[in-house]
Amino acid sequence: MVKRSNVFILDVIYLVCLILSSIISFTMFSNDILSFPFWINLAASYVAMTTLWIYARHVMQNMDRFKRFVPGYTAIGIVLIIYLGCVIFYALFVGFADYALRWFVLLHVITAALAFILCAILMIYIRSGSEHEANQQLNINDWKSIENAMYQLLNIMDKHPMLNVEKDRKSVEAIIELVKYSDPIAPAAVQYNDRQILIDIELLREELSTQYEAGEVVNSERVAMQLSRLMSRLKERNQQILSLKS
What we know:
By secondary structure, this protein is mainly alpha-helical. 85% of the residues lie in helices and 0% in strands.
């Protein structure tokens, strides 16, 4: 309700600004109402205020995103404010613009184009940052899944009386410690390896769980070999990340 109320107030302010801008323009430049520059400047002022209003609405409705990318969104706001200021400044020359109409139109076009280009560049920067953040969060979630899978594996081993619990339990605990203190943010070249590690852990967990439920004798040497392989792959993964980030 508070957000809707704030947006409503913003809409009212926008409409008031449009009305005031129209009144001021038609009052101050009443002698130039029939001139082409007057209507160009009035239209440009409407465009500038409308884009600033759309920007403000977007920020108010996506405050969480704004807080994550404050520099980018702030820069866009500054560009739009400067554009509006330029349009207001150009209005001072409406009375003389008939003598240099081409230059007056070109000035408005160049200013609008520069504002658009700068805002587009900043939006690309924000989008790139958003994708990077989403990718990092995905990495963290994947790495948390690996840690949770190892805890589940440890829980199964504690319940399995036919495993060499002490030896294999220490191996699993060592892997868990390694996972805890590893960098969860992996470059793209390593992400496939992380997913494959998770798949291997889940396969081992399912294999042990199935054998436990069936009452089968577990090959402890095979389990130890798989755990050793997992440890080696995790160490190799961490070393690869250090090399790529250095």
